[in-house]
Structures are given as C-alpha cells and as structure tokens.
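Exercise 4. Each item below gives a protein and its sequence. For each, produce the structure-token representation.

Item: Acyl-CoA synthetase (AMP-forming)/AMP-acid ligase II (Umezawaea tangerina).
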Amino acid sequence: MSLTAYLDKGASLGRDAPCLTMDGVSLSYGDVQDLSHSVARALARAGVRAGDKVGILSGNDPKAFACVFGVARRGAVWCPINPRNAAGENRELLELFDCVALLHAPAYADLVAEIAPTLPLLTTVVPLDDLDAWLTGDPVDYDPSPPDDTVMIVGTGGTTGRPKGVQLTDRNLETMTALTLMAYPFDPRPVYLAMAPLTHAAGVLCFPVMAMGGEVVVMPAPDLGSFLDLVERHRVTHTFLPPTLVYMLLAHERLSTTDLTSLRCFWYGAAPMSPARLEQALTAIGPVMAQLFGQSEAPMMVSMLAPADHFLPDGTIAHTRLASAGRPGPLVTVAIMDDEGTLLPTGSRGEIVVRGSLVMRGYYKNAAATEEASRFGWHHTGDIGYLDDDGYLYVVDRAKDMIITGGFNVYSAEVEQALMAHPSVRDCGVVGLPDEKWGERVVAVVQPHPDTTADPEELAAFVKQRIGSVKTPKQIHIWPDLPRSTVGKVLKTAIKSTLRSG
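Answer:
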C-alpha cells in the first residue's frame, strides 16, 4: 500500500470532504488528490525518476504535506527535512540521502541558497510559493514504484555523530497504519489536530486518519492556547503531543475551561512520560490518553497503551501500568535480549529487540550500521527494558544512558520519574559524570515550574525516599530551562557538556 493509497482511500469516501485544514481554509480530498498528480507530472518533467530522493523542507503547511503524495505518486522517495535544523545539518541530510530535488517553503529560501550550490546532485529546487508555475506544463507519463519499495527516508538525530538515513518501505508504514487502526479508538471521519512537526511522528499519524477519510487540522506553529481553541472549534477527536508539551498543557490556565469532550485519543510518546503527570492528565484532559512506543527504525507502534488500558476493569486507574509502554502490537514480535544474543525470561532486564514487517529495510548506504542494528536476526532498539507477566513492556532507559555507580546499574529514566513526581519539577534530565570514588556519579538538572522554587536538598530527600540512596543524585542543579532537540527531547549530551565545562 503506497502512501498515495491512504489519500486515494480517503478520496473514495468523498472527494469534497475536508482533508487538510489550516487557519480556517481547507484543501478537500479532491484538491489534494489533483495536486498530487500535478506534482508527480512536474517531477517527471524535471527528470526525477522512480526511486530518486526528493526532500521537502517546510514547517507545518497543508500544501507542503500535500506534495508528499505527489512525490509518492511519482514513485520517488519522500525525505522530510526538519526546518528547525541548522543549515549545516540539513545540508548533511540532503547529501546523505542523495536528494535530486527539493521543495521548500519560502521562509527557508536563504538557507536553501546557502546550501544548494554545494550539492551537485540537487538539480531541481522549487520554492512552494512558485509551485503553481512549476506545475504548469505538458502531461507526462510516469510509472509507480514497485510494491514494498522504499517510500521514505528519515534522518536519525545525529546528536551522537553523523546521522543515519532510515529507509522505510510502504509495507513498514502499512503495518504501522494497521496497528494504529487496530489498537486505538476510531470512528468514521476522525478529526486529527497536528501541532507537533509533520516531519516526525505527527506526519505519519496522518496516514491512518486519511484512510478513514478524516480531516487533518494543521497548526503552523506550536501554541497551546491555539491548540485548545482548535480542539474545541473543530471538535478534534485525535491528537499527538510529546510529554514535554503535555506537561505544559496541564499547567495551562485555560485547560479546565476548554471543552475537550470530542477527544477520543490523545497520543503521547517520543520520550518517557512521568506516571504522576499521566495520572493528572487522565483527570484534567480525560480518559483518552494513549501511549505509543517506537522509533524511526520501527515506526511508532512497537507497543501501545490504548485509552482503556490505563484503567482496571472496575474503572480505577491502573497505577502500575502507567509506567509501562503498553503491550507489543499484534503484528510485532518483541523480546528482551542480553549482550550475547540470548533471549531473557519474563521480568529480566536487557535490550528490547523487535521483529516483523514494522522494522525498517535498513540504513541508507550504511551496511555496517544495518548489520549492527540487526544482530542475531532481531532489530536492536538500543532501549533497556523488560516484559512483565501480563505482557506489558517497561522501558527502563536508553542503553547509552545507563549509569554505573559503585558497581550498581542506575537507569537515568527511573531517577527522572522519581524527580518528576515532585510538585515543583516541570522537567529534568539525569546523567552520569566521571567520579574518582564511584566510577560515575548520578547528577540531575531540574527545570522547576514557573513561580515555584526547587530546593536541591529537598529534592534529593524526596528521591531517596522513593528509590533509595544508590539511585539518588549526588548533585542536583536547578536550571531555568533544559537544552532540547528540535522535537523537544532533552539533550543529555548538552547537559553533560555544560556540567563538565562548568
């Protein structure tokens, strides 16, 4: 099922229905379908062949996202380029992906002018404000890409070195879409609000919505006040936010006065969420919270915690389960593995490994990295976790973030969850720093809620009471904000660098 199939399926349910909406203006399914054919023809006229790589550099914009389906209809490969990256990062991605064409929003014209001359393969550059003129021309025949071909290449973060290009096939995204529709509540014609970047999780979540003929309401910039307005105005049924933005939403002064009764499924993911904040969300937002766990290499749906799974049969909150990442999906096999490739029994901690049609084809032009990630015939996520007796998956930490102090393994995520349970903590990051006595010492950086004070000694005592002295940070620093990636994740490498230099 190619990317265009989701659009075409939605159009078959009514070409006049709204497909992509922003600022009160909608492109219908018919509009997007027609535009996708025009973009495919224009790409063919420009010499873009099936299998060629086409970058799209734009913020959240309906026209830019509609072009994704034109790229797919040509049989080319969609390469989302994050506009929040620095020029050098995006140049590196365009070079890594071998992009021959780039469609970009006019706001990034200066960035494109800076990097395009250094990319000899990039022969077609189209500003989106010139799109109509570029689309004008004689009809050109074009062939679709073969089944189960690469349809998308997405860059890994690159925070620990040169980024890698994750090759996702139409089967990968079809599996993700099927899992989404299996696990979460959907009614005909859902309304999905996209505030998070369409270059990331918010974008691929559009595909199941469009397969149902739903409307995607696009926010051009993140603003929680506007988010609440749009939920109420459009009777939004589905949305996605990373935990950091959920925390901010819970503190928003207008949350309690906004009508959220239309919501059926409020996805959260991309980073661990504090069980204490999640319990608050289940009350303040409603019994609609829905976790997803995955990564670029196994998109979105390795395991899932549907809204109903947050509660016990008697309707009370399933407190222990809130710390889990849900159950592995029915089309995914998940296991826990040690360093020697042995699968571990229930309750044992090790690396989370995955098999199935959700797993990527491999890293683009990087056979060594692909081989490393697929040792012993399983995809290695790099996350440490365990499965409980009921089949729920618990993600303990990233393998690279585990701290070994005094011979004990300390998982930074566990310490972060303990800190997040304190009412004065808005967000935090926990790292290990070299220590002559302990090998590594546990160090925390805390961002307090506005208009509150956080006392390091009080926080340390609070954590010690919850998880013991070994896991309690030896140092707690109070910062007004934390360094974050372009998608809002706390950058522990930047925290370590600042603390070491200080």
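Check: The chain has a mean pLDDT of 91.
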